[in-house]
Amino acid sequence: MIYSSLTERLKNQHKTIASIIIKLNNSQLQYHPSPAKWNIHENIAHMAKYQPVFIDRIRKILTNEEPAFEVYKAEEDDEFEIYCAFTTYELLKKISSDREVIFHLITHLPVDKLDRIGTHPKYGKLTISEWTEFFLLHEAHHLLTIFQLAHRVRG
Questions:
Q1: Considering its fold, how many domains does the chain have in total?
Q2: Residue 31 needs a FRET pair 20 to 30 A away by CA distance; which of 98, 104, 110, 111 works?
Q3: pTM score, two decimals?
Q4: Which residue range forms the structural domain that includes residue 47?
Q5: How many CB atoms lie within 10 A of CB 45?
Q6: What does the pLDDT look like over 77-106, one tens digit per residue?
Q7: CATH of the domain at 8
Q8: Cα gap 35→106, rounded to integer Å
Q9: ∠ CA(14), CA(18), CA(20), 5° rounding?
């Protein structure tokens, strides 16, 4: 089932990025507080890169019987470096355009399709509704990280 909170977050949650980083310059976006951790720009690149992965997973769930997926690791995705090379502005545009695809895909599914299953190696069998919730919670984690980093570099 698609409930109003899920729909609203799917439509608007990503827009939080711009409001968090609006007053930051490029050196602040690229600042690494720790060599082992992503900076703000890399977190945004990850969010942008994961959206096509999510779209692909939903399409596989719709066309295959209970597909199983590996844990997505940006470090193992060659395209992640390509996304990191985009400007932050270009990444925000990509996130916005891909989010329209995701929003339309999820919100226009017939109710019976929302119960189709895909298997996550850690969380087990998830319906499309649950995959969408997982996607949004994962995104929220990165939004919190971006918020924390933004306040660190401004201070």
A1: 1
A2: 98
A3: 0.95
A4: 4-154
A5: 26
A6: 999 999 999 999 999 999 999 999 999 999
A7: 1.20.120.450
A8: 37
A9: 100
